[in-house]
From TrEMBL:
It comes from Paenibacillus phytorum. Transmembrane segments: none annotated. It holds the Pfam family PTS-HPr. InterPro entries: HPr-like, HPr-like_sf. SUPFAM superfamilies: HPr-like. Residues 2-70 form the HPr domain. This is HPr family phosphocarrier protein.
């Protein structure tokens, strides 16, 4: 794993943990808790399109922040 990949994983995990909302990415048929660094590290860079599912009291802020971070790291998001 390159330094950029590691940095992306850490940044996504740290950002997710700033919110109360549940933040999950759907990758294929798998659902990964973004607040789990282990889950991210084995899933994030599988060249797939990711779908964010966010639920909770601060979901609008969390969604915007997470989308911006995924874009920053060139990780494609679906709108499904």
């Amino acid at each position: 794993m390159s330094g950029l990949d590691t940095r992306a994983i850490v940044e996504i995990n740290q950002l997710a943990n700033q919110f109360q909302s549940s933040i999950v990415i759907k990758v294929g048929k798998r659902f990964i808790d973004v607040k789990s660094i282990l889950g991210l590290s084995i899933t994030l860079f599988s060249n797939e399109v990711y779908h964010l599912e966010i639920h909770g009291p601060d979901e609008a802020k969390a969604k915007l922040a997470m989308e911006q971070l995924f874009i920053k790291h060139g990780l494609p998001l679906s709108e499904v």
